[in-house]
Amino acid sequence: MKYVDMHCDTITVLYQNNGDLLRNELHNDLNKMKKGECLLQNFAVFTDIAEKDSSFTEASIRYYYEQLEKYPELIRPVYRYDDIEKNEKDGCISALLTLEEGSVIDNDLHKLDHFYDEGVRMITLTWNYPNGIGFPNFSMQDGDYEDLLYHINEKDGLTPFGIEYVRRMEELGIIVDVSHLSDRGFYDVLKYTTKPFVASHSCARALCGVARNLSDDMIEKLSQRGGVVGLNYCSSFIEDHNEEFTKISDMVAHIRHIVKIGGIDCVGLGSDFDGIENRLEIKDASGMNLLYEALKPYFTEEEIRKIFYENVLRVYKEVFK
Q1: How far apart are CA 273 and CA 139, in angstroms?
Q2: Fewer CB within 10 A of the terminal residue: the chain, N end or C end?
Q3: Mind listing the domains of the chain with CATH numbers?
Q4: pLDDT higher at 146 or 292
Q5: What pLDDT score was predicted for residue 141?
Q6: Residues 249, 295: contact at Cβ < 8 Å?
Q7: Where are the alpha helices (DSSP H) in 18-136?
C-alpha cells in the first residue's frame, strides 16, 4: 500500500552529518522508502532557534535540493499538486519541502514569500519555544523536557503578527501545521483561517496525555475544517511515560480513536522519522506494510487508502495553488 508521510527530520540530520539520501543508517532513505512504497515524503527543515538562525535553514534547503538533484530517477520535488500525479506516473517518489519553526522568516512576511518561492509548502508554526508567531504548550527554556511534556497552555496563542502570518500562508498556498502549537494557538488558527490545516505529527491526547497530542475537541474541530492529523510514531506520544518502544498495536489504537472522534477523513501519517530516538516495531520506512496489515481487521481497503494517502492528498489539492 503506497503512503504519504507528513513529517520527517531526515534532511536536517543528513545535512548536519553530510549524509546521503540514497542509503544511510537512518529511518529514511530512498531504498527504504521505495521498499515501503512511499508515494510522497514531507521533508522538514528543522531549525532550533536557541542555537541556529535562518542561515541554517537556507543551507539545509540547498542541501535538500542537492540530494534530490543527485537522484532524479528516484525522487522529485513537489511545487504544485499536479507534480505529485506526474511524479507517480513517472515512477518517482514525491518530495515536499516543509519548515519546522516558522520564525525563520525573521518577522518579515516578505521572507515568507521567499520561502514559498524556495518550494516550502507547509510550515510548523512553532517548535518548543515561543516565537514571533505564537507559543507552544511548553517551552524548552522552562525546564526538563519530560517534566514539561504534560504542560498545556490555554492562555497564549497567536500573536498579532502570527495572525497576519497564517493569513498570508493561506494566500500563498502554504499549509498551516499546528503540531507543537499551544492549545490556545490551535483555536486561534481555527478562528483566523478558512482553509484546511493539519497537525502533521501528533496523536490523540485521550490515549496519551502529553501536550503535543490533540484533545478530542481539537480533533473534531480539525476534522470539521477538513484537516488531517498525521500520526506521530514517537513512543512518548503513543503511550504515557514510554520512552523506549513504539508498538504497532498502540499506533492502531490512536488511529481508531481519531477516526471515532473525527471520522475516517481526518487521519493520516506523520512518522517523525529521524526526529525520534526510541525503537520502533516499524523499524524504518521499509516496514510500512506492517501497519497496513495491522489495520486490516478494523478498516476496509478503501478506508486504509484514506489513512495511508488519500486524506492528506485531498488537503494538498485544496490548499496548493
Answers
A1: 22
A2: C
A3: 3-319 (3.20.20.140)
A4: 292
A5: 79
A6: no
A7: 30-35, 54-70, 81-89, 109-117
* C-alpha pair distances (Å), 104 with each of 53, 70, 97, 187, 272: 7, 27, 15, 23, 20
Nearest Cα residue to 133 out of 174, 153, 113, 105: 105
- The tens digit of pLDDT for each residue in 206-259 reads 999 999 999 999 999 999 999 999 999 999 999 999 999 999 999 999 999 999
pTM: 0.98
Torsion of CA 163, 165, 168, 174, to 10 degrees: -120
DSSP assignment letter at 306: I
Cα 266 to Cα 152: distance, rounded to the nearest angstrom: 23
Q: Write out pLDDT tens, residues 282-298.
A: 999 999 999 999 999 99
Residue 8 CB partners (closer than 8 Å, separation 6+): 27, 28, 41, 42, 43, 44, 271, 272, 273, 274, 275
Grid coordinates representing 98 are 516543509
CA atoms of 103 and 47, how far apart (whole Å) = 9
For 158, counting Cβ atoms within 10 Å of its Cβ (0-12 exposed, 13-18 middle, 19+ buried), the class is: buried
Helical residues (DSSP H) of the chain, grouped into ranges: 10-17, 30-35, 54-70, 81-89, 109-117, 145-148, 160-172, 183-192, 216-225, 235-238, 248-262, 288-295, 301-305, 311-319
C-alpha grid cell, residue 195: 482553509
pLDDT at 143: 74
> What are the pLDDT digits (tens) for 58-105?
999 999 999 999 999 999 999 999 999 999 999 999 999 999 999 999
Residue type, 61: I
Kindly report the backbone phi and psi dihedral angles of residue 97, in degrees, each rounded to the nearest multiple of 5, phi listed first.
-85, 130
